[in-house]
Amino acid sequence: MTEPEAVRLVPCEPGRLTNDELRSLFLFEKLSDDQLTWIGEHGCTMRVPAGGLVLREGDPADQFFMLLSGTISLTRRVGDDDVQTVRTEQRGVYMGATQAYLRDDGVPRTYQASMRALDDAEFFVMPAADFGHMMRDWFPMAIHLLEGLALGMRERQAVVSERQRLAALGALSAGLMHELNNPAAAASRATSALRQRVAGMRHKLGMLAAGKVAPAQLNALVELQEEVIERAAKAPELTAMQAADREDELGDWMDERQITGAWDLAPVFAQGGIDLDCLTAIERKVDPGLLDQAVHWIGYAMETEQLMSDIEDATGRVSSLVSAAKQYSQMDRAAHQWIDVHAGIDSTLVMLNHKIGDGITVVKHYDRALPQVPAHPAELNQVWTNLIDNAVQAMNGAGTLTISTYADDDHVVVSVGDTGPGVPENLRKRVFEPFFTTKPVGQGTGLGLDISYRIVVNGHGGDIRLESQPGDTRFLVRLPVTEPPSA
Prior knowledge:
Blueprint: H1 19-23, H2 33-42, E1 44-48, E2 53-55, E3 63-69, E4 72-78, E5 81-88, E6 94-96, E7 114-117, E8 121-127, H3 128-138, H4 140-210, H5 215-234, H6 240-256, H7 262-271, H8 276-285, H9 291-329, E9 337-339, H10 341-351, H11 353-356, E10 360-365, E11 373-375, H12 377-395, E12 399-408, E13 411-418, H13 425-428, H14 448-460, E14 463-469, E15 472-480
Parallel strand pairs: 10-12
Antiparallel strand pairs: 1-8, 2-7, 3-6, 3-8, 4-5, 4-7, 9-11, 12-13, 13-15, 14-15
Helix pairs in contact: 4-9, 5-9, 6-7, 9-10, 10-12, 12-14
């Protein structure tokens, strides 16, 4: 990792700007001579050679700059790239400690961008403390308005952001409860049916015993039951058409032998993989007078096994949902850790399953050989939630959600794509702006992608970009595989 470039400024020139020179700057053109004199006494001129770094993003904002001559560019750091936001040679443009007039609220004031001189440039410079004092002393009413605007926007964003998190938590909780309800209800139904089948088996066992079944015959029947259950466990899954044909065959066989309730038993035997050969083997091993009771007893045993499998599947589903919820919330885990990004993506998909619905096909292209990345996993799960939720809404319930992961140099890339209508070109540059949303009023706060941007870029030293055309919209999240340098 290369060391950050040092800011080497040429000391201020001796002398100061005259009142007429200051008045030629549009910011000062309406000031009185006394005010201009004060400014001239508290400022100075500074020359910076071509290519010189004037101020660096993230450094303490302790100076206010105005361009007198030359060309400058402002850049923001996005991942490993410096993205130019402004290039200008307009005399009088200002940058640096532009909010020094705000009262001290404990929030550090830092430069929001880096500035470089593209050719030999000259600046008028004031210390941030003098600029802030001047503004508060000369324009108290304007300062109250500006403070109210700046602080109000910050507080409003915090309130709306908190509200959005609560709404998202409520939606996720409702979805989780919905997902948990299905396997819980299935387990309850299977348990109730299992109780009835076990009672039926006890009754059939009593009937077999009352029928004075010979011990050898009873032992053979028990062995036959175990063989059938083992066969059912290994039976291949049938298609709906194959199962229907099998039921008809088994039902006809039972009707010919006057087995009572054949229409109830045939589906159980068909689902358990029993065919005519197996029924014929059962017929050969039991006395003709016991065939009806033997078939029913084996049927109860098979249905009992199927019900226990249903309960096992349902409780396993509940366990996996709880595990996904713990993974998603990062309960009992360190805030910062080395993680496999796939675990967070998968848990997010589970949590959002109710939103994705049946009309959207989820396709995963995972590179399982990717290295772990240093991250705050709970924050990254917010990113995956926002991107997947946006993709689902863009497709309006029908389409393909594609999630891919791959390596790109020293970064791990997560791509979340959808087949929706896409984002118009004139809006793509604004999607990460706070409060900007393309959704109808009341359906979006415009903070989801802004929060995602700040988590990825500011919190993890990565990058997030949008590529979009009709039928193929992708958000690309790049995360470094090494710890970002300290700020």
